[in-house]
Amino acid sequence: MMQPTSKEEQKLWQRWAADRDPRAGDLLIKRYTPLVSYHVQRISTSLPKNVSRDELTSLGMMGLFDALNKFDISRDLKFDTYASFRVRGAIIDGLRKEDWLPRSAREKSKKLEVQIEMMEQQLQRHVTPIEVARELGVSVEDVYQTVQEHFMSNILSMDEHSSEPDDSEGKSFVIRDEQVRTPEQEIIRTELFDDLVENIKKLNDKEQQVLSLFYSEELTLTEIGEMLHLSTSRISQIHSKALFKLRSLLVNEMENV
């Protein structure tokens, strides 16, 4: 996402590391502010409209300031990798602490889950978003949005970030629990993600591609649209449709782990 470190930036880092030069700090923050916007755009995709992007940006900026103050230039680690961890973690922590999903939305999500379960028991097959929307008297887009919000709420409950990222420059995040998991729990979790991979393979090629680009390559929906020559709204629809298909695994099994 960021350009390679220039000689000018290296000098800024040296000035900042040596005596916390305010001017150098301001210029570094300005340079890496787009990193905050990037993560705000990604995370906000699955959040309800009542969550302000300005609030997410404020949380992200706090993470960026934290990264700037704690980054050790002597370590073999790029700042944008380290800062991404801090920015995303600050946003996730802020969302977790606040009641970002209104009670009405939680009730709607629960109602949707009950309706889907009841219809699948009656029909003995997976139901489509259109069928669910018809039964609930809502739009298909509303069904998609509710599924995404439910999915995000479960991700927030799992996506704890550790106090320090690994030195590697990978993009994965550590999932931490307050209590140490038993070997049996770890086996179940491993099996869950193995099952998830197998279920993703059952999606059509376009859905697999969008999920891969969004969650593995960490592209935004807009960037994916440009790559696939589709509109952002179309990519959003494909993303939502894929999550709906994976609902049973991503929601029910995650809650039981």
Write up this protein.
- The protein has 257 residues and is mainly α.
- It has two domains: 7-97, Orthogonal Bundle (Rna Polymerase Sigma Factor, Chain: A); 104-256, Arc Repressor Mutant, subunit A.
- Helices cover 71% and strands 0% of the residues.
- It has helices spanning 7-19, 22-44, 53-70, 79-97, 103-123, 129-136, 140-158, 183-200, 205-216, 221-228, 232-245, 247-256.
Précis, in short:
The protein has 257 residues and is mostly helical. It has 12 helices and no strands.
Largest sheet: number of strands, sense, barrel closure: none
* Residue fraction in strands: under 5%
Compute the number of strand runs.
0
CATH class of the largest domain: Mainly Alpha
The fold-level CATH name of the largest domain is: Arc Repressor Mutant, subunit A
What shape does the CA trace take? Answer: elongated
Structural class: mainly alpha
End-to-end gap: 34 Å
Low-confidence runs of at least 5 consecutive residues: 159-180
Helix content: over 70%
| Count of DSSP H/I helices | 12
Rg over C-alpha atoms, rounded to the nearest angstrom: 20 Å
Fourth-tier CATH superfamily name of the largest domain = Winged helix-like DNA-binding domain superfamily/Winged helix DNA-binding domain
Could you say what the CATH architecture of the largest domain is?
Orthogonal Bundle
Q: What topology does this entry show?
A:
Blueprint: H1 7-19, H2 22-44, H3 53-70, H4 79-97, H5 103-123, H6 129-136, H7 140-158, H8 183-200, H9 205-216, H10 221-228, H11 232-245, H12 247-256
Helix pairs in contact: 1-2, 2-3, 2-4, 3-4, 5-7, 6-7, 7-11, 7-12, 8-12, 9-11, 10-11
